[in-house]
Write a structure and sequence with these properties.
With 231 residues, this protein is an alpha/beta fold. It is 32% helix and 20% strand. It has one domain: Rossmann fold.
Length: 231
Amino acid sequence: MSANSARELQKIYGARFAQNLAYRRKVWNVLVPSFFQKYVALGDAVLDLGCGYGEFINTIRCRQKLAMDLNPDAPKYLDSSVRFLEQDCSSRWQVEDASLQVVFTSNFFEHLPDKAALGRTLDEIYRCLAAGGKLIAMGPNLKHLPGKYWDFWDHHLPLTEISLSEGLSNRGFEIVTRLGKFLPYTMVGQREYPDILLKLYLRFPMAWRIMGKQFLIVAAKPRSVSAAGAN
């Protein structure tokens, strides 16, 4: 579910990202192999939730690739190996139970209209993940962006790493990694930096504490569901 219609999302993202699509691809071509690939095995089935223009899912190396979004433009940017799901993320997914090893989402949860929609989405993630499967979630951290968080028309749901972790724990997930500061806030309207600077940034977590404005959470579906008290 989005608080914006599919047509509105198409207009918003077309205007926002059209000018730096090539740079965004370059950034994700560094982020995925240098950082995120370590969470994904070659034999995994991976779903990119709120896939946007497919920078993550096109780059990650895995067995099966799925992508979900309401923007009708998204499939144009996805590789032929990616199965696209155009649907409301807070309704039942067109994905079998326990069939995924990883769900990845970046800068998406803040676009949902309320905590109820987020809760239903988390329930679907839990259902579709296999035991031991992981959710990797990154997004703007309200506590470090008290004003700038609202500079985007389609931001509706304010979150921090603590509030999202609590919601995940309440739904049976185990928090594996919780970082309040990871990447800078946005690439929109910002200077385009050389690849080498991003690679250096990723290697020095001390820099994250200075420049990081986005949280990073890795949460796992327990291998023993009964032990976690999940539904």
